[in-house]
Amino acid sequence: MTATTTAGRQIATPLSGKALAAEIRRRTTERVTALAAAGTITKLVVVTATDDESSIWYVRSIAKAAAAVGIDCDIADLGPTASPSHIRHTLRDLSQDPTVHGIILQTPLPSGVQLSDLAGDIAPAKDVDGANPASLGRCAAGQPGFAPATAEAVLELLDHHAVELEGRHVAIVGRSIVVGTPVALLLLDRRATVTVCHSRTTALESHTSRADIVVVAVGKPGLVSAGHVAPGAVVIDVGTTPSENGGLLGDVDVAEVERVAGALTPVPGGVGPVTTALLLSHTADAAER
């Protein structure tokens, strides 16, 4: 992808997710309206057990976005001291509730409580953020199921901006089961050649600087600089670290990378809005099924 020219210098073309997110929300609204006309009120429940302000803000933004497309969204606030058994029973009850179509277990969780220990209690049919290991297994096997919304958002954004994937070399920085690993699986299904880098990878630049596409999702602001990126490469920044002034910081050093890359997602406004829109689309999928 060719960079644009501003004030006499080359800068990476911004890969905004706002228009794509708006289109996904529009289609979801139509589907939710049709479900309501047929007698089904689409319902999403977000389970929280934290007093983290950024998490609380994010959950409220999901609820607001859900309301805008006609989805009934409940927030099950269990409190920051909720026990694993309390959270587990809540997830199991919601999984058995026929009026609930989508379930999200929001992180962070109380100290000592791991998402990986509880995600299996979300019914795969309602696991709209792909947290249950069974959902990841379905993703790996190419079977119907919900991929983690952030991982799917990466591919949706690349498709929206007509970035070719088949046969391309993609370097992924980060191997979490929320983003890095499922992105790798989804890209392999699209016949890309994938390199997954992580905290034990030596000479990171030697891997990323040879890639046509770089996806970085580790939560370390400024990790990827100009030396990590090949001229003209497409860079997808999934990082969202809160800044001191209340904003968000990505994992890419924008001032450096935008002078080398052909295209770069902004933070915020890139992967984030698409992720939220896909959570709502997945909930409509679950209700239709």
From TrEMBL:
InterPro entries per record: Aminoacid_DH-like_N_sf, NAD(P)-bd_dom_sf, THF_DH/CycHdrlase, THF_DH/CycHdrlase_cat_dom, THF_DH/CycHdrlase_NAD-bd_dom
The UniProt record lists the keyword Acetylation: no
Residues binding NADP(+), per UniProt: 174-176, 240
Catalytic activity of the protein: (6R)-5,10-methenyltetrahydrofolate + H2O = (6R)-10-formyltetrahydrofolate + H(+); (6R)-5,10-methylene-5,6,7,8-tetrahydrofolate + NADP(+) = (6R)-5,10-methenyltetrahydrofolate + NADPH
One Gene Ontology term of the molecular function aspect: methylenetetrahydrofolate dehydrogenase (NADP+) activity
Pfam families: THF_DHG_CYH, THF_DHG_CYH_C
GO biological process: L-histidine biosynthetic process; methionine biosynthetic process; purine nucleotide biosynthetic process; tetrahydrofolate interconversion
EC number annotated for this UniProt entry: 1.5.1.5, 3.5.4.9
Residues of the Tetrahydrofolate dehydrogenase/cyclohydrolase catalytic domain: 15-129
Pathway: One-carbon metabolism; tetrahydrofolate interconversion
GO CC field: cytosol
Record keywords, A-Z: Amino-acid biosynthesis, Histidine biosynthesis, Hydrolase, Methionine biosynthesis, Multifunctional enzyme, NADP, One-carbon metabolism, Oxidoreductase, Purine biosynthesis
Free-text function comment from the UniProt entry: Catalyzes the oxidation of 5,10-methylenetetrahydrofolate to 5,10-methenyltetrahydrofolate and then the hydrolysis of 5,10-methenyltetrahydrofolate to 10-formyltetrahydrofolate.
Assembly and binders: Homodimer.
Record-stated family: Belongs to the tetrahydrofolate dehydrogenase/cyclohydrolase family.
Identification of the protein by name: Bifunctional protein FolD
Organism: Lentzea albidocapillata subsp. violacea
Gene responsible for this protein: folD
